[in-house]
Design brief:
By secondary structure, the protein is mainly alpha-helical. The protein has a domain of about 190 residues: MetI-like (MetI-like fold), CATH 1.10.3720.10. The protein is built from 16 helices and no strands. α1 packs antiparallel against α15 and α8 crosses α10.
């Protein structure tokens, strides 16, 4: 009963936050400089007042802001994000087309960041103050500090242009056509087609952008894992278990690591949210047709409905991931449910 009450509270918080974020996104979008009419009509059309008036009326730009806001909330409740000024397609359809590419890249990146971040954090904690520890800490600081766009260009230059180990920008090589869309994620869709060669090519295209995106999150996970594992190893119950003759490996895996990884869940969750919302530069450099590239093109065209749709999607990603992490945190650690 306590778990259901805890989950219910988190879901209510999520709904309230969604309404607040939706309102904030609407206000901020209307404050963006530029006129969508000027950005999307030709100079000849701009000189015709009838065309300009018809364009504003079609996209609801001729109504007062308060009326636009209530129409906007009404449409959101019906899962209608409006029509893109730039593409003339429903924004929801455009996002549904772009999102799987971003999701595939983000999931691949967070798996790399989590596996290597936790592994490096454990090694660093076990070999505290050794040369290995200093090296791992230096790598984690570099991953957090290095600019993503510079790292992306560096990876492309060495591993694609010079060494030709990995393929270049894009999701597939020219020798392959896009798989039939089931999930929108090329690796999974290629496997569902039974084409393992295409799936492996899609994986190879994922490697370079995923490493670039994983670097920052991996650094945070490494440092968090190391810090929390060192704290866990210094507790009384660990010293007692060690005094009873438990092996170092059994001590870490069986007792210390479980408690140390609870805060790491939060870092992984926020890292995934960050990856789903902060890939504009990397997607542009690697020609990845995801949400980041769609957001850039929408901003350049002053496409208000599309900008609002992207902002809401990013906010929704963060809030859902944060809510799921909160619920898992409460299930794993009952003390959290009392807060």
């Amino acid at each position: 009963m306590g778990e259901l009450k805890f989950i219910g509270k988190r879901v209510v918080y999520l709904i309230v936050m969604l309404l607040g974020v939706a309102t904030l996104v609407f206000i901020l979008t209307k404050m963006i400089p530029g006129d969508p009419v000027v950005a999307n009509l030709s100079q000849r059309a701009l000189n015709d007042p009838e065309i300009v008036a018809a364009y504003r009326a079609r996209h609801g730009l001729d109504k007062p802001l308060i009326v636009q806001y209530f129409y906007y909330i009404r449409d959101l409740l019906h899962f209608d994000l409006g029509t893109s000024i730039r593409t003339n397609r429903p924004v929801l359809d455009d996002l549904a087309r772009c999102y799987p590419a971003t999701l595939e890249l983000a999931l691949f990146s967070i798996v790399i960041a989590s596996l290597f971040g936790i592994l490096f954090g454990i090694i660093s904690a076990i070999r505290r103050n050794s040369v290995i520890d200093q090296f791992v800490r230096a790598v984690s600081v570099t991953g957090v500090s290095i600019p993503a766009f510079w790292f992306a260009l560096l990876m492309l230059y060495f591993f694609y242009y010079k060494l030709k180990i990995f393929p270049g920008p894009g999701r597939l090589s020219n020798s392959f056509s896009a798989p039939q869309t089931v999930t929108g994620m090329y690796v999974l869709d290629s496997l569902l087609e039974g084409n393992t060669a295409k799936a492996m090519d899609a994986v190879r295209h994922l490697i370079l952008p995923s490493i670039v995106l994983a670097a920052f999150t991996m650094g945070l996970i490494t440092r968090t894992t190391r810090s929390n594992l060192l704290d866990a190893l210094s507790t009384d119950y660990i010293r007692t278990a060690k005094a009873k003759g438990l092996s170092s490996l059994g001590l870490i895996i069986g007792h210390a690591l479980g408690n140390a990884l609870i805060p790491v869940m939060t870092v992984i969750g926020l890292g995934l949210g960050n990856l789903l919302g902060g890939m504009v530069l990397v997607e542009t450099i690697f020609k990845w047709p995801g949400v980041g590239q769609f957001a850039y093109e929408s901003v350049m065209a002053a496409d208000y409905p599309a900008i609002i749709g992207v902002a809401l999607l990013i906010a929704l990603n963060y809030m859902i991931i944060n809510t799921v992490v909160d619920i898992l945190y409460g299930i794993i650690d009952p003390r959290v449910r009392c807060s």
